[in-house]
Write a structure and sequence with these properties.
The complex is a heterodimer. By secondary structure, chain A is mainly alpha-helical. Chain A contains 16 helices and no strands. The two termini of chain A are about 25 Å apart. Chain B has one domain: Orthogonal Bundle (ABC transporter involved in vitamin B12 uptake, BtuC). Helices cover about 70% and strands about 0% of the residues of chain B. Chain B has 12 helices and 2 strands; from the N terminus they run ααααβαβααααααα. In chain B, helix 2 packs across helix 9. Chain B starts with a helix and ends in a 22-residue tail after the last helix. Classes of the chains: A mainly alpha, B mainly alpha. Chains A and B meet through helix 1, helix 6, helix 12 and helix 14 of A and helix 3, helix 4, helix 10 and helix 12 of B.
């Protein structure tokens, strides 16, 4: 029974993945690229050298962090589409902290920078949480709008108050901040690559989120409020309060993702720094079944997808926007497949079908064995 | 001078409202039927790009005069197809509508961007739709230029306001739409095919969002860029709340937003010192404000909004 259930789940997910690949193939055909070649490049290209493999992990780090945050929100019954904006606010706060306190010892400074990132992202997300809890504002719309607002806010700071004085002197005026002090830069895990110690932080936080959601009272309250708000209210759980708390937590993870990205990869706040991680993180969280144990492999998979689609842009001339197309169809296919995954009736029928299959394959032995 | 300043804001604001108005009226039908379509943004992106293609490719050919009409037609067809896709996901597969909408938004945005990079690559303009002054009416002083000297799509969009009011409140189909959005089970027991009506509403909404997108690239900006739509699809969804699921309220909301946008442009052009980024933020902040202030209105909305209809489920 259990095995057939797993087989059933795997079959549904496989079908959804095939549907997503098929929809993507139509778009690839439309621009005259070979779908098979493109998919082969995406999935095998990054494995050709060590740099490619580490690059997958570099992309997976922010995806894990953002995905964790989004999973917390979704599990608590509030949808967070605003990770992109929360990352930007986290980056602003983290960069400002690092630039303001360059004299601090390394570990103290890095801790402060991460906390500042969490605070920036968390407060920004808290706006949407409060609006939902107090005024019933649809959190999807408000987080999308907060994304647009944060993007403008971010460019305002990069062009104005936080611009690198060097840029003004030379007159090039590239909107970017000063380089972070060395003590605020994460060290590299593999020399000669961009892989940094943020990976360790991301994995540690994964374990923390698991314990928080499934082994603490607070986490249980959040999940209860998300699973069935009415029942949670009867049980005395403050549902609006837990919505706000979930949103703040969710945003602080996006903020940490931003802080890790700026201290680990770019070493200064630049334009387009989030490169769509905020949106890809939603897909990662859904693909990872909103569970830390699923989010890590999902993040690595999407890291592969991101690096691979960069390669197709260079080798096959497939525009990088193709990654958005794939992410979109994957979301559509996952949410569609959910109806069959959670449907006890369909599961039962599939189980019966499987057992009939198993009974049919050895018909002789089954018959003789049954009636001696 | 102040008279001129205000007049210019109004003059720009009217045509700016069209894309929002079209998409928002379409979204109204979706929501009245009980489906919350956030994919509106993605459909608008596709409409804006595909609508732009025919006039771009037919520029110097003999068919050039028909390019724009063809563009609008293709944008509508694309909108209908994307509406069908969204219906398949949310009505047939009963998926969570909010997340599915974000999926459709990414899909539409991504496809438009990918095709744009491949077929066109850089920013190029098209001639766009010429203004057509309504004979007689356009000669009314002050109001003539303001209301009756625009491109034909402006008139069409504003005619759609009473049109969709009539369709929603005075026709059998409109009654069905409202029924499946409020009490799908009761509608089903009266022999209405709930899912079919939702499919139809999503196709209509998709067509209108496609038109709205095409209006952006063909009449308003007269060019295409990746971020041309810039959240207007999401604003259109918010406007439905603001307009209390009623075409006339939605028209008011669309005008409010377009006036905010033309005010922002006038401020920039007028050289008033105000950080550019904060001016661009304005409409998005306005959406959040509007949503915060319409709490009570939500009671008036379709009661089954966002809930997929499952015939086999007992309540």
């Amino acid at each position: 029974m259990n095995r057939s259930r797993i087989a059933y789940g795997a079959a549904v997910i496989l079908l959804a993945a095939l549907a997503a690949a098929g929809l993507g193939a139509i778009v690839l055909k439309a621009i005259g690229a070979s779908p098979i070649d493109t998919y082969v490049t995406i999935f095998t290209g990054p494995f050709s050298d060590v740099f490619g493999i580490t690059e997958i992990l570099v992309r997976a780090i922010p995806l894990i962090l953002v995905g964790l945050g989004i999973a917390i929100a979704f599990r608590s019954g509030i949808i967070n589409i605003g990770a992109e904006g929360q990352m930007l606010m986290g980056i602003l706060a983290a960069t400002a902290t690092a630039l303001a306190l360059p004299g601090l010892p390394r570990y103290a400074l890095l801790t402060l920078v991460m906390l500042a990132g969490a605070l920036g992202g968390g407060l920004w997300a808290g706006i949407a949480g409060l609006l939902r809890a107090r005024l019933g504002v649809n959190e999807i719309l408000s987080t999308v709008m907060l994304n647009y607002i944060a993007a403008q806010f971010y460019t305002f700071f990069l062009r104005g108050p936080m611009i690198d004085p060097g840029e003004l002197e030379t007159g090039s005026g590239t909107p970017q901040s000063m380089r972070l002090p060395e003590s605020a830069i994460l060290s590299h895990l593999v020399p000669g690559t961009r892989l940094h110690t943020g990976l360790v932080l991301a994995l540690v936080l994964c374990v923390c989120v698991y314990f928080f959601l499934w082994h603490t009272t607070f986490g249980f309250r959040l999940r209860a409020a998300g699973a069935e708000a009415k029942a949670a209210r009867y049980a005395g759980i403050n549902v609006p309060g837990s919505l706000v708390a979930a949103m703040v937590l969710s945003g602080s993870f996006a903020g940490i993702a931003g802080a890790v990205e700026v201290t680990g990869v770019h070493h200064r706040a630049i334009e387009n720094i989030t490169s769509g991680y905020g949106f890809a993180g939603i897909v990662v969280a859904l693909f990872g079944a909103l569970h830390p144990a699923g989010i890590v492999p999902a993040a690595v998979f999407f890291g592969l997808l991101l690096v691979g689609s960069d390669m197709t842009q260079r080798s096959a001339g497939v525009p990088a926007n193709m990654i958005l197309v794939l992410q979109g169809v994957i979301i559509l296919c996952i949410v569609s497949a959910k109806m069959y995954l959670n449907n006890a009736y369909a599961q039962e029928r599939a189980a019966r079908f499987f057992s009939r299959l198993r009974a049919k394959t050895p018909p002789e032995s089954a018959k003789t064995g049954g009636q001696p | 001078m102040t008279h001129g300043f205000v007049y210019n804001i109004l003059l720009l604001g009217v045509p700016f409202s069209v894309a929002l108005l079209l998409a928002s009226l379409g979204e109204m039908f979706n929501q009245r039927a009980g489906v919350f379509n956030l994919g509106c943004e993605g459909i608008m992106c596709m409409g804006a790009f595909l609508g732009f293609l025919p006039p771009y490719f037919l520029k110097d050919g003999p068919l050039a005069p028909y390019g724009i009409l063809l563009g609008f037609a293709i944008a509508m067809v694309a909108g209908i197809l994307l509406g069908l896709l969204f219906a398949l996901v949310t009505v047939t597969f009963r998926a969570e509508q909010g997340i599915a909408g974000i999926g459709l938004q990414m899909f539409g945005w991504g496809v438009a961007g990918t095709l744009f990079r491949h077929f066109i690559g850089g920013v190029t303009g098209v001639e766009g739709m010429a203004a057509w002054a309504v004979p007689g009416l356009s000669r009314i002083p002050f109001l003539g230029d303001l209301l009756f000297n625009h491109n034909p799509m402006v008139y069409l969009a504003f005619l759609m306001v009473p049109g969709s009011w009539y369709l929603l409140f005075k026709t059998p189909w409109g009654l069905k739409v409202r029924a499946v959005g409020t009490a799908p089970r009761a509608a089903d027991s009266m022999g209405i095919n709930v899912n079919l009506v939702r499919y139809q509403a999503l196709m209509l909404g998709g067509a209108m969002a496609g038109l709205g997108g095409a209006y952006l690239s063909l009449c308003q900006a007269k060019m295409f860029a990746d971020d041309l739509v810039a959240g207007r699809g999401f604003i259109a969804v918010a406007l439905v709340y603001f307009g209390r699921w009623n075409p006339i309220g939605i028209m008011g909301g669309a005008l409010l937003f377009s006036l905010a946008q033309s005010l922002q442009l006038s401020i920039q052009v007028g050289g008033i010192k105000f950080p550019y980024e904060f001016a661009v933020m304005l409409p998005y902040v306005l959406v959040i404000l509007v949503l915060s202030l319409t709490r009570k209105a939500r009671m008036l909305g379709p009661s089954s909004l966002g809930i997929p209809y499952n015939r086999e489920m007992r309540y």
